[in-house]
Amino acid sequence: MSALPLCGMRVLDLTQALAGPFATMIMADLGADVIKIESPKGDMTRMTPPHYTSGTSLYFIANNRNKRSVVLDLKNEAHLDAFYALVRKADVVFSNFSVGVVERLKIDHETLVQMNPAIVTCNITGYGRKGSQSNRRAVDVIVQSIAGAMSITGEPGGRPVRAGVPSGDLSAGLYAVIGILAALHARRETGRGMRVDGSLFHSQLSLLNYMATYAVATGRSPEKVGSGHPGTVPSQCFETSDGWITIDAGFNQHFTQFCRLLGLEQLAEDPRFKERPARAKHREPLLARISAEVRKHSTASLLQLLDANGIPCGPVNDVLAAVTNPQSIEYQSMRSVPFLDAEVPVLATPIWFDGSVGHPLNPPPLLGQHTRDVLRELGGLPDDRIDAIIGAARGTDSQRPSPTGADT
User: Fold this and answer.
1) Which of 18, 252, 281, 300 is deepest in the core (most CB within 10 A)?
2) Under a CB-based contact definition with an 8 Å cutoff, are residues 237 and 316 in contact?
3) CA within 13 Å, CB half, 144
4) Whole-angstrom Cα distance, residue 63 to residue 26?
């Protein structure tokens, strides 16, 4: 492609932490001009432990490439006026403030649409704009807990377990991008902007998917099944003679073939295991037989055997093995982004157009790095006003925390 799909779109990004920056990074990777509006203290994740390079957290670097940084204190009237000047040239204003904050800061949709009728605004809250819990504080682990995910994660009879990835934050970011792009599409017909609302809780809740349907339809909440599946057996990880392997042979044709390959033909003919519903009902004796046989084989030999016969399977990779998987390498999934005197490895956005697997990777911005350029170019502010804004921001920057961990 001669240009990325979102080239020409301008996003004012007021977010910090993960859900918002992750979402705006996707938009930046797809070509949008994302201007990160930071307070004089900066995005809190610039200092998130435990790993740093050149005094900046790897957490921040992983989620803020391809953006420009402008420092504005929106509680300062002159800074707010400068922000309004940018709004007039923007397509999207994206924030993740608690309920009521955008109104107090005078950056709510109703205010901004008066100066730019085409503006699309998005704010991600913890639980939504209304409801009895809307004012509760929310972070990823809390919404995983409240939205049911932890109750079905882990081994049967075990303690509740948080997902290894921040599913509440990341799903909220993805839904926000979908909502923003839908609002921009609608704007092509109406010429008017739209308010998009996102919620960590509701995003995490939506990931229950068929689990929620099962629970409401039966009146019983699903229980933990470890790495397994409530209705597909076998479909889980098994211990081998030298490690672990994940096998999905739950469909009848796969199950019959799997049993033949492992010399367990009698299981495929057993009335308790012959059909999917029966296998789910009698999972314990079936899994005991399969587990005993799988433990006789090495991971590599089983992978070779099952792959060759079309049985879905895979090794249980750790993170380093996952990012160096041949498929990851062939798609350039792990790339490096320059940051000061370092090259930092980051995951690329997995969206491809016309067969291309790459998109530009510009370094995440230093705090306030583009303040002067953006306020002059887009805000149309004269140099003396810009100097005053930068000077006022520097006056409050002394409160910014320092890293607490060593560079990595």
Assistant:
1) 18
2) yes
3) 18
4) 9
* Residue 373 is a catalytic residue: no
Q: Rounded CA gap, 352 and 327, in Å?
A: 15
Q: Are 95 and 105 in contact (CB under 8 A)?
A: no
Task: Please return the burial class of 342, using the count of CB atoms within 10 Å of its CB with bins 0-12, 13-18 and 19+.
Answer: middle
Angle of helix 383-396 relative to helix 77-87, nearest 10 degrees, comes to: 120
Q: Which of 33, 169, 242, 307 is catalytic?
A: 169
Is the Cβ–Cβ distance between 242 and 303 less than 8 Å? no
pTM: 0.92
CA distance between the termini of the chain: 36
Query: What pLDDT is attached to residue 208?
Result: 96
Q: Residue 139 CA to chain centroid, in angstroms?
A: 13
Nearest to 136 by CA among 96, 98, 190: 98
The whole-number mean pLDDT for each consecutive block of 10 residues of the chain, a chain of 408 residues, reads 85 97 97 96 95 95 97 96 97 96 96 97 95 90 96 94 95 98 97 96 97 96 92 96 96 95 95 94 95 97 96 96 95 93 93 82 95 94 92 65 39
- 3-state SS, residue 69: strand
